[in-house]
Design brief:
The protein has 64 residues and is α+β, with helices and mostly antiparallel strands. It is built from two helices and four strands. The strands form two sheets. The chain has a two-stranded antiparallel sheet with strand order 1-4. It has a two-stranded antiparallel ribbon with strand order 2-3.
Length: 64
Amino acid sequence: MTITVNQQIRHGVLGTPKGRTRRVVPMTPTLHAALKALQVVRTGNVLRNADGSPVSDSQARDAM
């Protein structure tokens, strides 16, 4: 399983991933299971706040 990254938000600006090319990232079995367990299939931002807004760079960094 993989995730394809076509766009990114960096410093609040929507654009292409660095290198200006989409990326294919392997998905861990744990992530795959967590996504399949969701009751609603969502599109858009992978990382988002409870209100649906995208997480900021600092929020993502702090979470990791």
